[in-house]
């Protein structure tokens, strides 16, 4: 049963749709040969085409179209075999042509969906369309805060103008800010699996606009929506939606009306603020771009791209359950995060104990990286070294207690487990004669525990094992020790 407490307040229901823009990792821009570059000197990667000079002619980037088809297929969309580019006409200082080449009524992909795992339930989010367009330039607002409404002036950098951009539009199927955040996480991991974008939200190569409305549960008609622009982190997406839902609910409860607006989220005040009244589609005066011929995408091209699709998170999760015997929770954890999944897969190349490797990644490893605010790949523990650590546990070269100490040293210093064990003298004691001598001494010094064990109190053996482990600084093989104690006290 779905938990509605997060998205319903006082008989109101939240309805959210997302428009996600993803910059593609192609070599060149969408309609010209300018190289893509993030952080380069402003206005150094431009040409007459991406600046919209009169007489310049755009040419479609085939690689970008292939990436769009790949994304649409991964999102279970139908691919249109006939697609057209339009001009979306509006003025803004970061757009040199005063129109954006985009797709309107004939996008590449339509009518798809993506399943979003919310833990206790699956939210199926419909995908209305996947279309191709070009990105705008970038405005840099000069002033104390760097925000447009508080700047002294702005300057334009057109390096980004013309970058291939995919827009993914959902149906209004998302019912809470938490679902919106999880949808974005799921979408990002899917796109990373496809290797079509770096999906860096910090650098702006993946960002979302959220359309949100609130209505009475009993109403069939959707409420008036507002759009929150350029939400470039999972946190901002959730926080911005939470505030906007609360704002709209309060207005409706007090008898007011929602005004259709475009708003932006201010992370300093954790509120949304008005940017402008919302435009409708007809305000953009769409018409087919006369410089670009329609695209015909034949079935052979589609099938060829389909054959290159990698294993997607859902299929990978099922494989982890079926092939490795991981639980549903463990499989979901390992499969639905691109970085975790790729790290896990690489570790398995060096050692095939999937369950133990999974436990290390989800346990000690996750605890340390979460504490330090870094990712698996940013840590000093390589997949090969983690695999070697697990291999040494499995071969009983070290026990689990020593392994924890070794792992911390590996994490802090980037050394191999062999180097840490050698440096710290942590190799497990497996010599039966050596352990038997220590066992005899411990039994002799602990008659009370011996008598308790003989009286049927089996927990007493744990005390004796603990004493031996303490004597050996945790290096004794606990299995051999346990067998020796039982043999001697039977």
Number of domains: 3
Mean pLDDT: 90
Q: Helical content, roughly?
A: 25-40%
**Distance between the terminal alpha carbons, to the nearest Å?**
54 Å
Report the major sheet: 10 strands, mixed
Taken from the alpha-carbon principal axes, the silhouette is elongated
Structural class: alpha+beta
Please state the CA-atom Rg, rounded to the nearest Å: 29 Å
Give the percentage of residues in beta strands.
Answer: 15-25%
Low-confidence stretches: 1-8
Number of helices: 15
- Give me the count of strands: 17
Can you tell me about this structure?
The protein is α+β, with helices and mostly antiparallel strands. It has 3 domains: 8-305, no CATH class; 313-424, no CATH class; 432-489, Arc Repressor Mutant, subunit A. 39% of the residues lie in helices and 20% in strands. It has 15 helices and 17 strands. The strands form 4 sheets. Strands 1, 2, 3, 7, 8, 11, 12, 13, 14 and 15 form a 10-stranded mixed β-sheet that branches. A 3-stranded antiparallel β-sheet has the order 6-5-16, with no helix packed on it. The protein has a two-stranded antiparallel ribbon with strand order 4-17. The longest helix has 20 residues, at 234-253. It is elongated. Residues 1-8 have low confidence and may be disordered.
